[in-house]
Amino acid sequence: MAMELETKKKSRKVLRSSFTRQANELEVLLNAETPVVESVKVLWELLQSKHEELGILDHAVYDLMLDSAAEAELESEIEAHDAYLKKFTTLKVRYEKLFDDAEMAKAESSRSSSTGQGLHINETTGKRKFKLPPLEFKHYDGSIKDWLAFWSQFKKIHEDESIDDHDKIEYLIQATVAGSKARQLVESYPAMSENYQKIISSMLSRFGREDLQIEVYVREVLKLILTNAASQQKMEIATLHDQIETQLRALETLGITSDKCSALLYPLIESCLPHELLRAWQRSASFSKCEPEDVSNGSSTCTLEIRLKKLMAFLKHEVENEQRITLASEGFGLSERKVHAKPSTKKQGDIPTATGLINHETVRVTLKGIYRSKMVRALFDTGSQRSYILSETANELGYPPKRAEKVVHCLFGGKELSNAHNCYDVTISNGKHSYTFEALDQPVICNDVAPVSYGPWMKEMADLGIEISDVRDHGPIELLLGADITDSYTLLFCLLH
């Protein structure tokens, strides 16, 4: 690890020198009375690339130093990173100001020149030098979801008074799918001019009702949540953002703006997000600014409407970040080298994620069996009405089943799953005291739950008299302590003594 740390520091030192040199060159160009736009753009693109590479190296060095370095060294590392970030941000502001001023000057010049040339512009406007392809009808099949797109196109024919009503019926027949519900409705009326308004009224009442349209797009949001939750392969951020925006724009078209339905849409959209993205949103500055200033008296400076707008802005920003990362990788050929590179035989270590920063309520307890005892990892879950024990552990300790119970589990989305469980008398013992309670068996209780990682905070908690039993060693959760026993003083006495 020490050798890897030194290698990354050496690489970062070279990159910082290159970053400083290019930053100084860009600053000289920006200080000039008439900056050369092409040179400024070239240096800015190079500086952006250097800044992204430097940020990746800074994070890698900090992660390697985290376990062994002193607190002062870590603070020094962060200060150095902030200094380069400040330099980059200063140049970014100056760069954007340069081009904003240029755009304003260009717009002002355009307005002044248009005053003297207004007559000439009006004479030439509208003269098209190319032929556009003919538009084709969007064929409608009677789907409520596709009504808005169809009606926005056909509405031009409907409102054109120069077209005879009989011809409008013919156009309407051509614009519907043969054999569909829409075609059947149109053809149910004789093709006469006086029936055209009746046909349109019937179509509007059948397919174009606003209440049905609103239900469809709200259900699309719900469908997106359930699909994303049930699918093992999660959607890309760009796809997720575009699908959510599609439903919101459709609702706005129907007059359902975010101020009217934010209380419903915000929790639904938040439920669409993957866990990692949801944690990133809740850690972001935009989410923090949306927290109520005074919860005690019920006042809030940020409504759900503003929070919904900030959430969509956050998703848009994440999509742009993904695009930048893709461009940076493809621009330097990194993705191509990945395809043609030989498979590495070196065993890769675990990659730390934000999931490991969350410590669940776990504890190590001793289960007393008929012939032996076993130390197991237990998880407190007050959201579960019953307690559970791993089936393999119950068999290993020789617990005899008391009875069989059929339990209906209510899952997310209103689904119900009926399972049969064996019920056991489980005994927790600390040598002096014991506590026996009922638990149902389960083949797998939960996925991997990491214990508390060992670090300097362990000594601080020990000084405060806080003892943590579930430290370091990984292992499956073999016991789930539900709401049926977590309020028991006898259980707490066994765990604390």
TrEMBL record:
Molecular function as annotated in GO: aspartic-type endopeptidase activity
Domain of life: Eukaryota
Gene3D superfamilies (UniProt xref): Acid Proteases
GO biological process: proteolysis
Classification via PANTHER family: PROTEIN CBG08539, RETROVIRAL PROTEASE-RELATED
Annotated protein name in UniProt: Peptidase aspartic putative domain-containing protein
